[in-house]
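To whoever is on call:

I kicked off a structure prediction for a single chain this morning and the downstream step that reads the tokens threw a length-mismatch warning. I double-checked the sequence; it's 508 residues and nothing unusual in it as far as I can see. Pasting both halves so you can look.
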Amino acid sequence: MPARLELRHLGKTFGHTRVLSDVHLSVEPGEIHALVGQNGSGKSTVIKVIAGYHAPDRGAELLVDGEPVHLPVRPGSLAASGISIVHQNPGLVEHLSVAENISIGQEKRSRWTRKLNRRREAIAAGEILSRLHVSLDPSTLVKDLVPEERANVAIARALCSQIPGRGVIILDEATRALSRDSAAAFYKTLRHAVSEGGSVLVVAHSLSEVMAIADRVTVIRDGEIVGDGLPAGDLSEQAIARLMLGRTVEQIVSVKQLPAEVPHIAVRGLDTGHDRCLDFDIRRNEIVGLTGSAGAGWEQVPYLLAGDARARAGVIDVGGVTIDLARASLRHLLKAGVVLVPERRELQGLAVGLSVTENVSLPRMRRNSRPWFSGLRWQRDEATRIIATLGVQPPDPDLPVGKLSGGNQQKVLLGKWLLGGPELLILHEPTQGVDVAARQDLLNAVVSAARSGTSVLLVSNDVNDLSAVCRRVLVVHDGAITEELIGPTPDHIVDAVYEGRPTVGSSA
């Protein structure tokens, strides 16, 4: 039986830079195959060639179920070839409903009038969402969904177009916004799809996810395959990381000293839209984690505290300065030293068309410039410092941020706020969609900031991040903190979030 998807002799050159060299990849019938590599290793370029976004160099071949696909891939030929792709940016239409987004390209029309049959679309959407164990009203507008729900809609759209027993579903970091429960349900659906003869190609940064779902793993480094179709059962996360990086990954060194006794940050009566409110403190030199199940209210906290969204009620005290969050503006909170690294860096955190230098210096432009002169030397010095400290690649301060890989964009976003010496650094899913090396660099930078006196709130559903750097983790249910875990392990956090058992971590 031919491979579901096969790439042969794939090369790609941009200008004088060769980013892919003789890449071979084979996804067999009935398997989940993982493609892994660092940010900038070339894996996203591979997917963009398959999607028709990039034209490959001469000599490349793409076959689906043994049939050659014309390269460059033409618009509309993907679905006809049996390929469905869910990208990191799911490409949903905000003003359309869940059902309309799922049915895009497969709209149901009346036989006689050719009008769209919205009722049939809603029924079909409900059926595919039910397969994913997702409770969503098909008539809900996408703009009203949280990130996890958006991810589920994009995944449902891909599954809806699949014909059992042929073709391949490609997931490019598609599950990064899913909670543990939703991801588990989705993996079960994937297993059902491959049991029917379908195949899945997963592009992922989370090595724990790769180990949980993949049958085979292909590793790409610097545009070349360094591990070809390796059985996942024969590998460990450390072995995959060594192949990805060409070296051993060091451990993240957390904050060891106890924080100051007196709270530096105090949040009281924060209304997240539930019946109860949040109260918590953060000391200097302390990294506090905040997590919970989907929809519990913790996801809104970063934006309410930073002034990006207006709280209905609540106050924050920053080093003795009390701010009413129901009235405060973004400017008030920035002046008090409250800064936010948001989840969606490309939409909320960075000006992707501007250079690294311009992005890094933007928060301090008013303070360090004059009306007639912005000053270039201090801007260049700041950018150079961040590039060196966080290891931004390539180390070019004039490069537009949009040209950087996701992990390097995240370093620029974090760095621009660290340079201001914030009182409170709020991070929402800071390592989402970055590779293992970039994750290490980012978390070590956060630990260094805490050691220098910054209070840090890490808001995440990544239990490995939380356990790696947080002395305390607060667990939210229905808008209120129900657990405080001291020095928790990943299992402690999972138990508290998803099983609701009283859990106490070991003393730190």
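Update from on-call: the warning came from a stale cache, not from the record. Cleared it. Sanity check on the structure: The two ends are 56 Å apart (CA to CA).
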